[in-house]
Specification:
Layout: H1 7-29, E1 31-32, E2 39-40, H2 42-53, H3 55-70, H4 90-109, H5 113-139, H6 144-151, H7 156-176
Antiparallel strand pairs: 1-2
Helix pairs in contact: 1-2, 1-3, 2-3, 2-4, 2-5, 2-7, 3-4, 4-5, 5-6, 5-7
Length: 185
């Protein structure tokens, strides 16, 4: 592929980015209430968007998700509206475009797609925690230690499963539909 994607490739990326935005919305509705921060599947689709679409389009997909929610549409686990960004899940939400960007960048720049994907998933997940946990502590006025106990520890097993699922889907797409995995181009 050329350095500048052609119009067909750009259109394909836009369609796939929209699909990932829709998956992020659906992922917010698949939730398990767990204190101030529920378990959701949104982060699975954020990470997968970065792996598949690359840094810019993955981040754009997550950014559109946030924009739709900020405008008031009930796409977040707690509904919609800009006020939710100040709440306990706000840090996790604002981390999504950054996470997708870094995940896509690592996947795109790596020399070995499989290993790069694993490192990308770990880095993307860490970014979500690095932004989300301190925000949680601030938003509900608790110590960072307490925020780690309620905003990180209970999520680690599930996020490991989500990472494995994202890696599996990425690996499948890489083999079966490589034209849809833009980090390989």
């Amino acid at each position: 592929m050329s350095e500048t994607p052609d119009i067909k490739e750009q259109f394909t990326r836009m369609i796939i980015a929209s699909f990932f935005t829709a998956l992020m919305i659906a992922g917010a509705y698949i939730r398990i209430p767990l204190g101030p921060v529920p378990i959701v599947l949104t982060n699975l689709f954020v990470l997968l968007a970065g792996l598949v679409l690359g840094p810019k389009w993955g981040a754009a997909s997550a950014g559109v998700y946030l924009l739709i929610g900020a405008l008031g549409l009930p796409v977040f686990s707690a509904g919609g509206g800009i006020a939710l960004f100040a709440g306990p899940t706000g840090g996790y939400l604002i981390s999504f475009p950054v996470s997708a960007f870094v995940c896509g960048l690592i996947a795109q720049k790596g020399r070995r797609p499989g290993m790069s994907a694993i490192f990308a998933l770990i880095a993307g997940t860490l970014i979500i925690y690095l932004i989300g946990v301190p925000w949680l502590a601030w938003s509900i006025s608790i110590s960072l230690k307490k925020a780690l106990a309620i905003g990180l520890a209970p999520f680690l097993p599930g996020d490991a499963v989500k990472g494995a699922a994202a890696f599996t889907v990425f690996s499948y797409l890489k083999k079966a539909k490589p034209e849809l995995v833009f980090t390989l181009n």
